[in-house]
Amino acid sequence: MSRRLDTVFLEGVELFGYIGVLEHEKRNGQTFYIDVELGVDLRNAGRSDILAQTVSYAEVFSLAEQLMDEARCDLIESYAEQLSEEIFSYFDLVRTTCITVRKPEAPIDGKFRAAGITIRRERDE
Questions:
Q1: 40, 68, 97, 103: which one is catalytic?
Q2: How many CB atoms within 10 Å of residue 51?
Q3: What's the angle, vertex CA 29, arms to CA 37 and CA 60, rounded to 5?
Q4: Among residues 3, 46, 60, 69, which one has the fewest Cβ atoms lying within 10 Å of its Cβ?
Q5: Which residues belong to any copy of the Dihydroneopterin aldolase/epimerase domain (predicted)?
C-alpha cells in the first residue's frame, strides 16, 4: 500500500540573484521568491522529536541562498533544477521536491505580480 508523503516546506524565500537572459538582468540582478516543498516521511521525527529524523528547513534555506549567490545562469529553470539536485544530494530522507521560482521583475511590459516556474521531481528520476 502506498502512503502519501508528509511535507516540509519553505515559502516565499526572498533572494537576490543574477539569473536572466537579458544583459541588464545579469549585470544588475533582481529579487526572486522561492517556494520549496519536500516530500518526506515524518513519522520517525514526530515519534522521536529528534532533528536528525527530519529535514532542517534552515539548511534548505542555506542551500537555496548559496546556490542563488553562485548562480550565473540564464533560466530560472536551471536554478530550480540545480536546487532540487542539491536537496536530494544533501538529504537522504527527501523523496520528492516541488520548487517554485517567482520573478516579479521579469522583463514584461504590463502589470503582473510575478512570472515563474514550478518543477516537481522524484528521487531516482
A1: 103
A2: 10
A3: 25
A4: 3
A5: 8-121
pTM of the model: 0.92
| pLDDT > 70? residue 125 | no
Contact predicate 13/35, CB 8 Å: yes
Measured distance CA(91)–CA(83) in Å, rounded:
12
- For 1-18, b/e burial (b = at least 16 CB within 10 A) is eeeebeebebeebebebb
CA 16 vs. chain centroid, Å, equals 14
Structural domains of the chain sorted by starting position, each given as residue range(s) with its CATH number in brackets: 6-122 (3.30.1130.10)
Does residue 107 surpass a pLDDT of 60?
yes
- Residue 1 has a pLDDT of 52
Cα 64–chain centre separation: 6
